[in-house]
Structure formats: structure tokens, C-alpha cells
Amino acid sequence: MTDKNKGNILHVIYDILLGEFGHMNWWPAKSDFEVMIGAILTQNTAWTNVEKAIDNLKTHDLLSFEAIYKIDSNLLKEHIRPSGYYNQKTLKIKAFINFAKKEYNFSIDLMKKENTYVMREKLLTIFGIGEETADSILLYALKKPVFVIDAYTRRILERHNIIENAFKEKYEHIQRFFTANIPRGKANVSLYNEYHALIVKTGKMFCKKTPQCDDCPLKKLQV
Ligand code: SF4
User: Fold this and answer.
1) Are 119 and 97 in contact (CB under 8 A)?
2) pLDDT tens profile 79-138
3) Alpha helix (H) ranges present in 43-115?
4) 159: Cβ below 6 Å to ligand 1?
């Protein structure tokens, strides 16, 4: 298959998934700050566990830069315990909060005004923030045109022979494959938002370790 055709498949996949599931309206959070914390908490765990940790933070009025900046790490650890890996995640959240204070004085507006590439590079210097987490923050909290690549994306691309050995492929290569075919630009922020959400939905429902192709909307693609 030529690269051009492979690129077209990305549009076909999007149309099929949007037609099947409709708009996802992601991220499942009430504020941009909640998105940022959720993006860290969701590492290596199911979203239901993240929700419990977020609920704890909400109940104790801790969903703000200032509140998490002030809270003792041991206490924060207890609140986010349901999300798993809570020792590491406490360090990561504290590191992110300290970064936001030092660089942007806790202003999400200033973070949104930052150049996308500069912001991404800065996020990647923070302890515990990898590419997927950084891009989730950029896209879903800061509304930047950055495509998020996760394990479900790799799995679907690999199983449909769109990218061979997608799990071994560099993150940036897969990301570039999407952005080359669905150009960056403010106009595509909502499309990037929807597309990743639709991929996650497909992965959770059908493209599991053992794929359930018979019921999957993407079964009409040539596998
Ligand atoms: S479940 Fe099957 S049809 Fe659906 S995305 Fe995965 S490999 Fe494709």
C-alpha cells in the first residue's frame, strides 16, 4: 500500500468511527486543571481508578494548583491512592505543579499562549511526563493541535497493516504519520481531540488483547 493510500485510510477510519460512536466530547473532566492532573493519574491504570482519585481530590477541595502546591505529599498520596503507583504519581504531580508555578505562575492562560513546540519541550523535561502525557495535556487542556498516540493507536495501525510493527515504531514517527495526513492547525484541534477519543473507545470496546473484530465498526477495513 502506498503512503498516500495509507494516509487516506486515516480519514476513512475517522469517518467510520465518528459515524458509529458520534462525538466523544473529551476530555472527561470539568476543568483544564482537572485534565492535566487526570493525564498524569491515568498512566498505567484504568480510568475508573482515576475517577476515584479525582473524586477524592474534589471532595477535599484540592483540584487547584494552589491547593496541591500547599498540601503535604503524604496526604496527597493518600488521596490519589486509588489510581495506583501513588508514590510515583505524587512525585510527578508535585513536579508538574512546581513547574507550573515557576514557569507560568499557575496561569493556564499563559500556558495556552505559549508556543506549542516550546511548551512540549518544557513538559518533557518534567519528572514523569512522557510524550503521551505531555501531548494529552497539550491537546485536551491547552487546546494545542497535537495528536496523541497511545497503545490503542499502535494496536489498530498494526492489526490493519497500516504501520508494520507499530509497537516498535518511534512515537514521533507515528505522530508524524497522523499530522502529515491531517495537518496541524487550530482548525484541527477538535478533530485531533475526537480522533484520539474515538480510537480509545474502539480499543476499549473491541480492539482488546484478543480482538473482537466481528462486532467492531472497523471490521470493514481490510485487515
Ligand atoms: S477489533 Fe479487529 S476490526 Fe476492530 S480495530 Fe481491532 S483489529 Fe480492527
Assistant:
1) no
2) 999 999 999 999 999 999 999 999 999 999 999 999 999 999 999 999 999 999 999 999
3) 47-59, 65-70, 73-80, 86-104, 108-113
4) yes
Instruction: Supply 103's cell numbers.
Output: 514557569
189 ligand 1 Cβ < 6 A = no
206 lines ligand 1 (CB under 6 A): yes
Query: Which residues, at least 6 apart from 185, have a Cβ–Cβ distance to it below 8 Å?
Result: 145
CA 147 to ligand 1 centroid distance, Å: 21
Contact 112, 56 (CB under 8 A): no
Q: With CA atoms as reference, report the closest residue to 85 among 156, 20, 133, 24.
A: 133
Residue 213 CA, ligand 1 centroid: distance in Å: 5
Domains along the sequence of the chain with CATH: 3-25+148-220 (1.10.1670.10), 32-141 (1.10.340.30)
Question: Does residue 62 carry a pLDDT above 70?
Answer: yes
Question: What's the mean pLDDT in 22-36?
Answer: 93
Give the atom of ligand 1 at the shortest distance from the alpha carbon of 202: 5
Using the CB atoms, write b or e for 124-160: b if 16+ within 10 Å. eebebbebbbbbbbbbbbbebbbbbbbebbbbbbbeb
Task: Report the nearest atom of ligand 1 relative to the CA of 159.
Answer: 7
Average the pLDDT over 192-220 and give the result. 96
Rounded to an integer, what distance in angstroms lies between the CA atom of residue 81 and that of residue 40? 13
